[in-house]
Amino acid sequence: MSAPAPRTCFWRGFRAGLPFVIVVAPFAGLFGVVATDAGLSITEVMAFSVLVIAGAAQFTALQLMTENAPTAIVLATALAVNLRMAMYSAALVPHLGSAPLGWRVVLAYFNVDQTYALSQAAYDDNPTWPVTAKVAFFLGTAIPICPMWYVFTWAGAALGTRIPPEFALDFAVPITFLALIAPALRTAAHVAAAGTSIAAALALAWMPAGLGLICAGIVAMMVGARVETWLEARA
Amino acid sequence: MTISDAELWTIIAVLGVGTFLIRFSFLGLIGDRKLPDWVLRHLRYTPVAVLPGLVAPLVIWPPATGGEPDLPRLLAGAATLLVGLATKSLMAAVFGGAGTLYFALYVLG
Predict the structure, then answer these.
(1) Contacts (Cβ under 8 Å, ≥6 apart) of B38
(2) Residue B70's closest chain A neighbor by CA?
(3) Which of the four, A15, A194, B44, B96, has the lowest number of CB atoms within 10 Å?
(4) What is the pLDDT at residue B46?
């Protein structure tokens, strides 16, 4: 099979990212609503979403600020929540590392949970794609997801009204992440890593926010790699 | 919230720059040098090692209920995962989870 054109891969990525609009929109809108409610101006709310573009960290920072935590604690905790993205960054190196530096800067900015998970899955299925195709796919996933993050943050902040708790918008986040996880559980090694991640994250929940997740992630990656080695040895 | 504008903008700016540097880290510094096999073997499991740990406390101790386990949210989490496993479809999983959540909140809430 010949390599697909970058344009083809861009649109494949775009179609893969499109469904996430439905789950990203309420999450972003919720941030806009909650941040405005906490007293941030619309400029401040938008600066948050455009510069940081990381929902979990934005909510973490906001929560700590409303509790009047010191600036250093707010920063350390929110950045720790984002440390998982260093693992995404490392995982993308074999696929995107040979792209020009300018493109890597752009891709790094758009390296969020959803774009990463979709692109990693596509690269696993198509390891022989040239780097231009891989870059195009990644950008394709980002185009529907990331601008919607800004637009719906703005919508939430502009509406400013409290969304009734009956809508349970808080649970948009867990549903998004679970929907991403399920198709990724391809082998026994993936299942073992996921199970370890859950057990370790719950067991380490007493640690400062974000830190327990990093530890759980590292242990779970080691378990996944070890199970893969065992399975290969038995095959 | 008693935070000053200067502190708020410091948080936004440092968080923005810091988050970008985290995302750029390996991709920017390593470039196209080959990573050893054992590293790649670990990195393959990054999403399934991080996302379940991120989501598990939110499902079991939802902030919306003050951290108390909540049956509708537990059912919705299980439904999302099961539909996702059965169909391999993201949208089916999302609708299955959201539908279960609203149904359970309506019936049990």
Answers:
(1) A225
(2) A171
(3) A15
(4) 82
CB B45 within 8 A of CB A189: yes
State the count of interchain CB pairs (< 8 A) between A and B. 293
Residue A125, class by beta-carbon neighbours within 10 Å (0-12 exposed, 13-18 middle, 19+ buried)?
exposed
Q: Rounded to whole angstroms, how far apart are CA atoms A25 and A18?
A: 11
> ipTM score here?
0.81
**Which residues of chain A make contact with B59, given a CB cutoff of 8 A?**
174, 178
pLDDT in tens, B86-108: 998 877 898 899 999 999 999 98
Indicate which of B19, B68, B74, B88 best probes the interface with A, i.e. most A CBs within 10 Å of its own CB.
Answer: B19
- Which stretches in chain A have pLDDT values below 50? none
* Residue A134 pLDDT: 96
Cβ contact A182–B85 (<8 Å): yes
For B61, the token pair is: 């101790």
B6 and chain A in contact, CB less than 8 A = no
CB spacing of B64 vs A85 below 8 angstroms: no
Q: Are B9 and A196 an interchain contact pair (Cβ–Cβ within 8 Å)?
A: no
Q: What confidence tens digit (pLDDT) does each residue in B17-34 have?
A: 999 999 999 998 877 777
Residues 6+ apart with CB under 8 A from A224: A189, A190, A192, A193, A196, B42, B44, B45, B48, B49
For tokens 């601008």, what's the residue? A147
